[in-house]
Amino acid sequence: MKRKLSYFLFFLFILSGCSAKSENNRAEGELSKKNLQVGLVFDVGGRGDKSFNDSAYNGLEMAKKQHGINFLFVEPQGEGADREAALRQMASDPDVALVIGVGLLFSDDITVIAREFPAKKFVCIDYISKPGVQMPPNLQGVVFEEKRGSFLAGALAGLVTKTNTVGFIGGMESSVIKKFETGFISGVRSVNAGARVISGYIGMTGSAFANPSKGKEVALGQFGRGADIIYEAAGASGLGVIEAARESRKLVICTDRDQEPEAPGFVLSSMTKAVDRAVLKTVETVLDGTFKGGAVAVFGLADRYTDYVYNDRNAALVGTKTHERIEDIRKKIVEGKIIVNETAVVQ
Fold first, then answer.
1. Which SS3 state, helix, strand or coil, does residue 98 take?
2. CA–CA separation, 180 vs 234, rounded Å?
């Protein structure tokens, strides 16, 4: 009987030890979540652009509030020539486990740095994949369906224009911004084949995303040529386009975030890329162990990570019937009934 009691007590001791170990592991897991340190390197234009960079920052603020993470950030200097040094600085910090580069201009540098620091995780927003170049297994690209979203912006402009002339203004002339332009033009022509589209770019380098005065100049030129709506994809330079719309009493379609507060009554809509939600989601994959490096994550129309703004502030400008038409187009794109390439093909 004594032997049986000893075995029973030993069994309880083992169970107690396993339970304590389980509790310790759980506590350690919670502690690691709270101690996660993220390093964010801003794109040209930096914090305060009221667009792309601010949205990424807000995503980390959301992650801090919801999950208790900590983060650091570095602002670029000039045209952002120091982005490689900034990435390396973040990666060299022993407390930083995840490094995020905000913008397509980081694609090459973050690929190199990720290979140098295989123990760290890296994320590049608007990552540009290069043929024949394999992504490091600790790097994840984040992209949006900007061409599809721009198609919706174009359809909206094509339906609302009264002069039958609309404009597009991009920041740096690049493959990513070209997607905005071609998607927009395709959208305009899908609903208004006779409309004229005037296109322009602010520059050929990263500084084109941080030049509001040039953005205003280009926009005033397009408004002067008959455009009554301009779609801008120009980062902080877009603030100049918005000012030109207000000054000319014309309309602008913005990008990345809802920028209606910048010029109430003159922002027709905004083609939004939920960079904040994408950053939050990516941080959560690091926390729960589902982070997938070596691949590109697409945040699109289906879950409204890529979307357009329609609310009580712009409803009068858009109109109920136009909104219903745009929603129908959005649904058909998601279902694959409208294919958005260089042109739209209705299946």
1. strand
2. 10
The C-alpha angle 130, 131, 136, rounded to 5 degrees, equals 60
Residue range 225-277, pLDDT digits in tens: 999 999 999 988 999 999 999 999 999 999 988 999 999 999 999 999 999 99
Short-list 66, 67, 60, 65, CA closest to 90: 60
Structure tokens at 339: 């294919």
| Cα–Cα distance, 240 to 283 (Å, whole number) | 33
Distance CA 283, CA 71 (A): 11
Q: Which candidate, 231, 228, 253, places its Cα nearest to that of 182?
A: 231
**Model pLDDT for residues 63-108, shown as the tens digit of each residue:** 999 999 999 998 876 555 688 899 999 999 999 999 999 988 899 9
- C-alpha 25/C-alpha 73 separation (Å) is 31
- Global pTM? 0.81
Contacts of 139 (CB under 8 A, 6+ apart): 110, 111, 114, 121, 122, 123, 124, 293, 294
Beta bridge partners of 85: none
Q: 153 with 271: CB under 8 angstroms?
A: yes
* Distance in angstroms (rounded) separating the CA atoms of residues 278 and 271: 16
74: tokens are: 């570095």
